[in-house]
Amino acid sequence: MKKLILLILVLAAAGGGWWYLRRNHGDDTQYLTAPVTRGDMTQAVTATGTLNPVVNVTVGSQISGNIQKLFADFNTQVKAGQIVAQLDPSVYQAVVHQGEGNVANANATLELAQLTYNRKKELVAEKAAPQADLDNALASLHQAEASVKIQEANLEQAKVNLYNCTIYSPIDGIVISRNVDVGQTVAAAMNAPVLFTIAKDLREMQIDSAVAEADVGTATVGQDVDFTVDAFPYQTFHGKVAQVRNAASTVQNVVTYDVVISVKNPDLKLKPGMTANLAIVVAHKDSTLKIPNAALRFRMANQVTPTPPPTPEPLIASGGHPSPGNAARPKRRERNVFVMPPSGGKPAPVPIKLGINDGISTEVTEGLKENDVVVTGISNPTPASGPAAQNNPFSNQRRF
Question: Residue 155: CA atoms inside 13 Å, Cβ hemisphere, count?
């Protein structure tokens, strides 16, 4: 009898537990949620670029020779017209002396030809010489005149080469590189060798950045730019878009465009050649409603058609005008998100309209209010197929 009573109590306890679980835990799905908040949003185009001086002049040599003296070194401040290097002028000085001798000889020949012509002219007038002699004397005179001009031109060229033995700075600036040493021979037979590289003013610099063709339509002149360099990883520098160049560059089927950023460098921290990580600010909103991007990707198991990931809205360029590269895009995007009811229960879809996107959050222009709770995921997803599996990060992994 006691065993029968004990068996009945065990069965009753099991039945009560099953009924309790059935009643209170029929749907034990736990949702990850996030509130709708208000804050500032900035949408930016990221790119990389190289810092360069605005004016960068390479100083070369038009003639060949040995470097005799150097009057500038790395980081030397120079003025326009200042001597920065001197080539050995001895060979070119000798050529000048030779040219002067050739000019003197040509002048003597011209003088003799002139006298001969005058004498022949008098003899022909007195019928004492044939006309052919006068013609030959006139031709010799013209040849002597031409020879003088040729020798004077050769002398002028020799003087120019002698002048070019002294290298002058073409601009006011600072020497950022020196490529020669005293005693080194420079050969200008094929091209002009580079002796120095001079930057005009390192307080004014520019960044030549490579912006992808998908983003270049949002870049316009005057937009603000924030960037960092590896030398100062915890400091943010600022600049502005100065030019969007139309020349495209294609590397491994990737098309990019050069966007030039003007940068102020008053403390000379930034140096030529540094790599800059850019963020071109193409849109900014103050105190706007926003939700996490995860809320836009979440879908319930019974929703068949997935919604594509968000794309940026037409961007507002500086001055409040729509960016021309996005004029054909719709002004607002309609989407559905799942919102938890205030009274509890299952989340319900709510249509909303979206604005800009900063990569983490998206602006909500219509459909939600501050402090609404949106669903961003499921804390205990179960393996499934179909639309429910799209929210399970492990659904595509093979189980062993």
Answer: 16
